[in-house]
Structures
1.
Amino acid sequence: MKKLHLILCLLPFVNFTYAQLPPVFGPEYVKVASTSEMVKTYLTPQRIVWQSDDSGESILNSERLLEKGNGQVAVNDKNLFRFVSTENEKPGILLDFGKEIHGGVKISMGIRKSKTPLKLRLRFGESVGEAMSEIGGRQNATNEHSLRDFIIEVPWLGSVEVGETGYRFLRLDVVDSGEDVPIKSIEAAFVYRNIPYLGSFESDDERLNEIWLTGAYTVHLNMQNYLWDGIKRDRLVWVGDMHPEVMTINTVFGNHEIVSKSLDLARDQHPLPQWMNGISSYSMWWLLIHKNLYDYHGNLSYLKEQEPYMIGLLDQLSTFIDKDNKETLNGNRFLDWPTSEKPEAIHAGLQAMMIMTFQAGADMMSVLAKPELQKKYKKIADRFKKHKPKDNNTKQAAALMVLANLKDAKKQNSKVLTKDGVQRMSTFYGYYILEAMAKAGDYNSALSVIRKYWGGMLDLGATTFWEDFDILDITNSGPIDKLIPESNSDIHGDFGEYCYVGYRHSLCHGWASGPTAWLSQHVLGVNVMDGGNKVKISPNLGNLKWVRGSFPTKYGVLKVSHTIGEDGKVKTEIDAPEGLNVIQ
C-alpha cells in the first residue's frame, strides 16, 4: 500500500504532538495540531482519477498535486498545478486520497497577476460516482447531515480550509471563465482521535486480517465528538447502532470515555417514558450495552450512576407484555431496515430482545446488590420465554431467538442462518448472525460469511464498511474507486432503499464492524468475564492454521497466539498482564 504523505499543520494557539496515523495508513509519525485526543493531519492525494482535459491547455502540471509539500505558499513557486478556464472550458479534476477519511480539504493558491479569489466547486464523495454526481435525481446525491457539494473562494497567495464530512474522493471544478490560477496544493484535512490500536488480529488468511482492521478503522473514524454511526450521514448517536461499535471499541481500544459520554447523552436526551431515538429496541440496546460494559471493564461506580434510569426503564418495559406473555411494545418497532416491513420478524426479534434485556437487568441488579429487583426481572424474563414466536425466514430474527435461547441454535443455523449463503444479510445484524452461528458451533460457516459478505465490500474498493450491502447487487457492478461505464451498474448510486437510496447510502457505518469483535472473541478466543477480572481463552480456528493477536483488558494488553500442530491439536501461548486471571 502506498503511504499517504503528510505535512506540517501550522495552526496558532494549539499544542503540537507526535501522533501515529491509524494502522490502515502505515506506521509513519507526523506532527499534527492537537488540543486533546482529536488531531488533524494533512494528506496528499494518491492519484488523479479523472481530469476534464488531457491536452495541457486548461489543466497543467497535475502530477504536482501528488507530491508531498511543505504547506507554505511562496512568491517564487515554479511550475505549480494550474487551472486555465475559458468561456467554453471550465476545467475539473477528481482526486483520490486512498482511504475513507473524516474531515475537509485545504487548498492553497500561488501568486498570479489577478488578486481576486478563485471560485471552485467542490464535490466530496465516498465513491468516484458520488464525487462526480449532481445533487438529487435518481441516484440521490445529497447535502444532508454534512455539506459535500458547494462553491468556495480560494484567496490569492493564501489558503482556505473547508468541509466536514466523510469522503475519499474530491472533485474540483473552476466556476468562472477567464481564470489562470496556480494551485500550490490540495490536501485532505483528516480529523481523527489519536489513540492506539491496543487490540490486534492476525492469521494465515490475509482477507480476514484486512476485514478485522477495516472494521476497527470504520469505528475509529466514527469516534468524533460522540460515537456516531456514520461520518458522512447519520452523524448522530443511534443507541442500537452503537452496540456493535461498542463491542469493537472494547476489542480494539479498550475502555474509552466516548462510550459513556454517548450513552449518557442518549439517556439525558430521552427522559422516560421516551424511547431512545424513538425506537423501543434502542432503549433495550442501551441496557444491553451497559451490561457488556460492566462485563468488560467492571466500573461499578459508573453502573451505579445509571441505576435510577435503568430501573425506571426496566419497569417501563415490563408493562409491555400481554396475558399470553407476548411483547406489545409501542413506538417505532424496529430491528434493522431489511426486516422493517416484516411484522412477524420484528415481533420475534423484539420478543427475544425482551428476554435478553431482562436477563441483563437481573444480572446488573445482582451487581448493584438489589436481590428483590434481581428476582423480579428474572421472573419477567422467564415469562417472555413462555411465548415462542412463529417461525420466520429472516436471519436477523432467527439470530436473536438463538441468542435468547428461544430456538435451538443448530436447527436455526441449518434451517435459516446458512440458507442461501450470504443473501439477505445486513451489515448491522450480521454481527448477531455470526454470534448465533458461533453458538451453533459452526465456525467454518461463520468465517465463510465474513470472507464473502464483508470481503465482498473490500472487493468493490471499500476501505470502511457500509451502511448496507446486498450481495446480489455485485452482479455487473463496478467498484467504488473507478469511473463506471454505462454498461455497468454503480454499486453506490444504483442501489439501496429505505433511508439509504443511491449516493445517500453511507459507506462508513460503525454498525457494520461486527467481524472485528467476533474474530477476537471467537477465533482468537478471548472471552472477558467477571467485570474484566478474568479472561477465558477458548479459540476456534475453523479452517485456519494459526492466529495471533492482542486484546486490551483493565490490567493491560493480553497477547495470545494459537497454532495447529502436526497432531491437529491447538498449541496456545499466552502473555498476560499482571493481575489478570486467565483460564483455558
2.
Amino acid sequence: MHEIVTLQFGQQANYVGTHHWNTQEAYFTYEGQEESPVDHDISFVPGIGADGSDTYTPRTLIYDLKGAFGTLRRENALYEQHVADPAQLNLWNRGAVTLRNSPIQPSPYQQALEAGHALPALTTETVRFWSDYNHVYYHPKSIVQLNEYELNSSLMPFENYATGEELFRSLDREHDLLDRDLRPFLEACDQLQAVQIFTTTDDAWGGFTARYLERIADELGKGTRWVFALENSPATTRTRRIEQMSHAAESVYSIVPSASMYVPLKNSPSLLGGMQYDAGSRWHTSALQAAVLETSTLSGRLRSGAAGHAGLDEVESSISSNGQRPVVEPSCVFQDPLQLSGAKAVNGEHDTRMANGHVNGNLDDSDAKSTVSFMPDVPLMQSRRHSAPRLSTVASAQVTRGPWYSSLEIQEADMNARDRYLQGTRTFIHQNEVSFPLLSSYPTIFRNPDSPDKLAVKTSFSSSTRVNTYLSSLAEVARASRTMEDREAVYHGLSSMAEEYVEDRGGLSSGDSDDD
C-alpha cells in the first residue's frame, strides 16, 4: 500500500479539505457495483467503531482555531465516547457552575444528510462553516482544536507569520505535536507515499506550517511532501494586501526547504464565460482550489495498473529538476465530458477545432484562452528594478480526467519529454477516465442550461518563468517590509530561488512560449 497522509491548517484549508473528502467519499463503490479505479485504502484508514463495526475514516489531521469547527464534534456516530465510571464525570467534590455557549444549530443540509432525506440546495447564506457541507465521519484523533486563538477575534487576530511560529513552538514544547497527533497516522501506513498539506500561507498559519514541516523533515528525512499554499481571504486595501504578501514571502522562504513541491493557489482566478462564483465566499473559492488539487493528485490514488496511475513522486520528478525547482505554476481547464468525447474523430485523432487545440501534447492559443490560472498576483513594489522575463516553460506535468489526448499523442509527448536534446517544453501526461463529480455539496459555479453532473478536468503544474516573476515580486515585498525581522535573508533566499526559473539559469527553454 502507498498511503497519503493529509494535513489541513486553517479555515480556507479546511473548506478545501471538506470538498476534497466529499469527493473521495463519492468514489466508494459497494456490492453489486463495478470496482472503483480509486484505491480507497490510500486515503482512508480502516478501523473499528464504538459498536464493533468496520469503519473507514480519512487519513487526515484537521487543525483550526476555537469556534471554527461549527457543529463538527470529535465524537460522532462511528466513535461515540462513553464514560463507564460515573465517578469520572465529576472529580471536583464541591459545587460547580457550568457556563455554556449557545449551541450552534446544524444546517438544514446537515440535518437532511443525517436523516437520509432529500438534500436542500446549499447557498452562500446557509454555509456558515466548512462543517455545514461535510459528508464524511472523521476519527476523533483527526480533530485538533487550538484553543489559544479564536476564529475572527479582533483582540488576538491570528494573522502574522511570527504568531503562527510562536504558537507551534509553544504547543510542541508542551505536547510534542508530531508524537501526539501525526505519529498514529504514520504508524497506520504500510508504505507512506506522500504527505500533502493544505494551508494558508499569507497569515499566521504559514508560520505554523513552516515549523511543523521542519519537524517532519527532521523526523522523516527526505520524502514526497506537497504543499498547496492557499490565500486566506481577499484583501480590502493595497496596504493589507502587501501585509499578506509579506507573510507569504516568509512562508515560501521557510516552507520550500522542507517541501518537495510547493503549489501556490490564489482564491480568485480569472474565470471564463459560463463560470460564476462569489469571491467573498470560502465555500466558492475553495471549490475551484479543491478541483485543482484533487485532480493533480488523482494519479497517486488510482489502483496499481489503472490507466493514468503514477506515484506523486513520479509526477513531481518530471518537473522539479531534482528538487531545484519545487515551486510550480498551477493552471486548470474544465470541460463537459460529453463535449470532450465528441471531439474525437473517426480515426482516433483529435479535431483541434473542437478539442481546445491539443496537438502532440502541447497547448496552442485556443487552449490557453480556456485555461484558468491560479498563480497568485503580487503587488509590484516601487523598488522593483527588473522587468518580468519572457514567458517560457521548461517542463509541465499534466493530470487529465477524460479523453483530452489520444494514446498516440500521449506516447509522442512521453517520447519527446525523455529526449535529452529536446528544444522546447517537456510535457508529461497522466491521463485517466475518472471524471470529477459535481456533488450536492459543490457550489453551482458551472452554470448553463445543460450543466453536467461531472466534469472533465485537466490540471497542469509547470516550471516556467511565471514562477520567477512570482518569487521575485515576493522578494521585493520582503525587502520593503518594515516589520520583518529577517527581511534581508528572506529577500536573498527568494531571489536565489527565482534565479532557477530564468532562461539562462536552470536550463529553462526559450523555444516555446505559453504567452496567452
